[in-house]
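User: Please predict the structure of the protein below. I'd like the answer in structure-token form so I can feed it into my own downstream comparison script.

Assistant: Understood. Taking the following sequence of 196 residues as input:
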Amino acid sequence: MLPNLRSYKNIYDNNIILMHKGELTFDLVTSLIETLEGRINAIEPERKVQRVFYSVVTECIQNLYYHMDEVRDEDVISTYDSRSGLILVMARKRFFRVLTGNFIPNYRIPGLQNSLDKINSMDYDELRDYYKEILSDGKYSEKGTAGLGFVEIAKKTKSQLQYSFQQITDEYSYFTFQVRISRVLNTTKTKQRVMT
């Protein structure tokens, strides 16, 4: 079969440095993180940006892996893998964009949305205090993270967390999460978060 040239052109035009759609296993997660580490070292000269990128991307991929829910709805499974996830990493001149997607039961949406909105309402110092508060309270989710990953991503990127929920069936929606990582080093010591 001939390759879809339009798809290749879209990948190059959008500077996609990694794209994966499908089931995620522990070994695949490890491989994806290692692949991205090599690619960021090759395309990004600034060590500080490399460190933030690697940390944030690792957190995003691990969040996706640990919080994916196996779909038991026949209508969904006929179209998608039961544990299908999406990872997309793009490079722009001034920033990297990381996007993940996964199925989520609709009953989990209000709690997740409230958590993300709360994180987005905080400045850097508030995020740092909130992170410590979560750790000291020991209020962990059933999967053991208490939303620490999202707080850590917001702290390190100093940008808003973007998200959406697309309802698929009465029981499931598709959760899309994305974040920007600046490639422009900030020479001042501001802790203000930026809107994206």
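That's the full token string. The CA atoms of residues 21 and 86 lie 4 Å apart.
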